[in-house]
Amino acid sequence: VEAEVEVVDEKPAKTAKQEITKPAKQELAKATPAYDTGFDGELDQSDLQLPRLNVVSPTSKLHTEDEFDLGSVIFEKELELCTKGENFYFVVLQARKDFQQKLDFDGGEKPLIFHTKDEVEENGGTTVYSQDAIDEERYYAPVANILLAVKAPDNLPAEELHRFPMEFDGSNWAKAVVTVQGGSYTAFAKPIITAAMGKLRSKGGIFKGMWVGGTAKKSNDKNSWFVFTASFAGMIDDEESVEFFADLANESSLKPASTDE
C-alpha cells in the first residue's frame, strides 16, 4: 500500500533469545567536519532520511513491479531482509502512536493525522469504529511509527553491509522506520506497546528488549495480504549493550507517522 499523508499535529507532542555482546560504539558527530564526510557544515539526526521497512503484499509495487516475493520484508525498498517464514531481529528505539483518517483507498485524497483522540474529536472525527463513521470519512484508526535498530541477516552479502553501518562484535545494525496500521498494528505494534507499558517500563526503557520480526498472511472473502508480526525474544541486560541502544535512541528524533508501504 502506498499513500501520501498530510499530518495535522496541533500539539507537538525461530523465537530463541538473542545473545547481546559488547558494542563498539559508533556515534554520529554533532558537528561533522568536511574531511570526515565530504559535507561541509553541522550535521545531526534531522538531516538523515532513515531507511524504511515494507512488507510485500499482492497489490504492492514491490511485488507487481519489483518482483519481490509475497510476505517478504524489504529494507529501503531494495534489499530483502527476510522472506515469508523467516525472521529478523530488532530493538525498538522509539515509538509514536497517532490516529489516521480512514479514506477510500482509490480516492486519491490525503488522510489527515492527529496525535490525540481530543484532536480527532475537535476536528469532527471519531476513534470509535462504525460503518457510518467510515462512510462519512470521520473514522480515525490508530497508526504507529516505530524506530528500530535492525540486525543485519547472518547471510547478508558483503557488498550489502554498507546498509548496516553500526558494528559490534561481528554483528551489524542499522536504524530503520516501520509504519503499521490495521492488521500490522495489531500484530506488530500492540505487542511492543504492551511490553513498553509493562516489563520494559519496569526495566527502565523500551530499548531493553530484543524482538523477533516477521510476517503473517491475512485474508477475507475478497482479498489477501501480509502483515508485520513481532514476538518478544528476551531482555537485554548487559550494561554496555543497554548503553549502546540507549545512545541510538537518544540521538534520534521520530516524526509523525507516514504510511509508505
Describe the SSE topology:
Layout: E1 6-7, H1 34-37, E2 53-55, H2 61-64, E3 73-75, E4 79-82, E5 88-101, E6 112-114, H3 117-122, H4 131-135, E7 140-151, E8 166-168, E9 171-181, H5 182-196, H6 199-203, E10 209-219, E11 224-235, H7 239-250
Parallel strand pairs: 1-6
Antiparallel strand pairs: 2-3, 3-4, 5-6, 5-7, 5-10, 7-9, 8-9, 10-11
Radius of gyration, in angstroms, nearest whole number: 19 Å
Give average pLDDT, whole number.
Answer: 85
Instruction: Give me the strand/helix succession.
Output: EHEHEEEEHHEEEHHEEH
Query: How many helices in DSSP terms?
Result: 7
The largest β sheet comes out as: 8 strands, mixed
Structural class: alpha+beta
Measured distance between first and last alpha carbons: 5 Å
- Fraction of residues in H or I helices: 10-25%
- Percent in strands: 25-35%
**Sequence stretches where pLDDT stays below 50 over 5 or more residues:** 1-34
Instruction: Specify the overall morphology.
Output: globular
What is the number of beta strands? 11
